[in-house]
From TrEMBL, chain A:
Organism of origin: Candidatus Magasanikbacteria bacterium GW2011_GWA2_56_11
Record's keyword terms, sorted: Membrane, Transmembrane, Transmembrane helix
Protein's UniProt name: Uncharacterized protein
Residue spans crossing the bilayer: 7-33, 39-61
From TrEMBL, chain B:
Highest taxon of source: Bacteria
Record field: transmembrane: 23-47, 59-81
Protein name as it appears in the record: YdbS-like PH domain-containing protein
Keywords noted in UniProt: Membrane, Transmembrane, Transmembrane helix
Pfam families associated with the record: bPH_2
PANTHER family: BLL0215 PROTEIN (PTHR37938)
Organism of derivation: Candidatus Magasanikbacteria bacterium GW2011_GWA2_56_11
Entries under InterPro entries matching the protein: YdbS-like_PH (IPR005182)
């Protein structure tokens, strides 16, 4: 028995996690705005976080752009067990 | 949004102090952040030296890239939340009251107010080597009418703040002499 999924499914999971990240980052920024604490310090930390995020997303895209996302990702293969269980 | 709007500053009120925790209390979070940033690099170096073939796999390489990306994004988020937790803890002293705004995580914010003229005790507490060297510590303000108290946590120059609180409370008591007599 073989259970496999296309590799692009991991991309969808990645996008969901990215959406969670964006939602929490926006809530953080909202807190800074509504609490009257938009100062040089909070601006600097927000800018650093934003810049690092952009760099990470760019580098992720750079590394993943040539990947063949149609490849199968094997989750389970019964042959793996045959190595341990003699027939 | 300005601070005066956040505390709903009254027309006769002026902000004397807006206090945050000492910057040194945020340094451990910065070190932890830098340490966490290094973890994937160390893992990459380890795998690359022990099992270099793994990273050339058509399946494992993209998964590793996505996992690394998610790890870094959530490390930035963790740092940002730590900063919010640190920076949004704010104690405002006006010539009329003390406002304590404390942020616990992302979705928990507690705001406490007490009138200056109700202050009974003000205690400053500097405990430990770093607080002693860098002059930061806690100031506890308790009121006469209730058991409620406000703790200014790890603020710079706690002794000075304690003295100022006592001075401002004395001044405010003069204005509220009638209120105090009617309560008694």
């Amino acid at each position: 028995m073989l259970i496999a999924i296309p590799l692009y499914v991991t991309l969808f999971i990645y996008l969901v996690l990215l959406a969670v990240f964006v939602a929490f980052a926006v809530v953080n920024f909202y807190h800074i705005i509504t609490s009257g604490t938009f100062t040089l310090a909070s601006f600097s930390v927000t800018f650093i976080t934003f810049a690092l995020t952009v760099l990470t997303l760019y580098y992720t895209f750079y590394l993943a752009k040539d990947v063949d996302w149609q490849v199968s990702l094997i989750l389970f293969n019964s042959d793996w067990l045959s190595e341990f269980i003699p027939s | 949004m300005h601070l005066s709007h956040v505390i709903r500053q009254k027309s006769y009120e002026r902000v004397e102090y807006a206090l945050r925790r000492h910057w040194l209390t945020f340094v451990p979070a910065v070190f932890l952040f830098i340490l966490l940033l290094g973890v994937p690099l160390a893992l990459y170096a380890l795998i690359n030296s022990l099992f270099p073939a793994i990273l050339n796999s058509a399946v494992i390489f993209p998964i590793a890239v996505l996992l690394g990306s998610v790890y870094y994004l959530f490390t930035y988020l963790f740092f940002y939340v730590q900063f919010i937790d640190y920076y949004l803890d704010l104690w405002v002293i006006t010539n009329d009251r003390v406002v304590d705004i404390e942020q616990h995580g992302l979705f928990d914010r507690v705001t406490t107010e007490l009138d200056l003229f109700r202050i009974q005790d003000v205690t400053s507490n500097v405990k430990g080597v770093l607080p002693t060297v860098f002059h930061y510590g806690d100031v506890t303000v308790t009121t006469a009418s209730s058991n409620s108290s406000i703790v200014f946590r790890q603020i710079p120059r706690p002794d000075h703040v304690r003295q100022e609180l006592i001075r401002l409370a004395d001044e405010d008591r003069k204005y509220h002499l009638g209120d105090i007599k009617s309560e008694n």
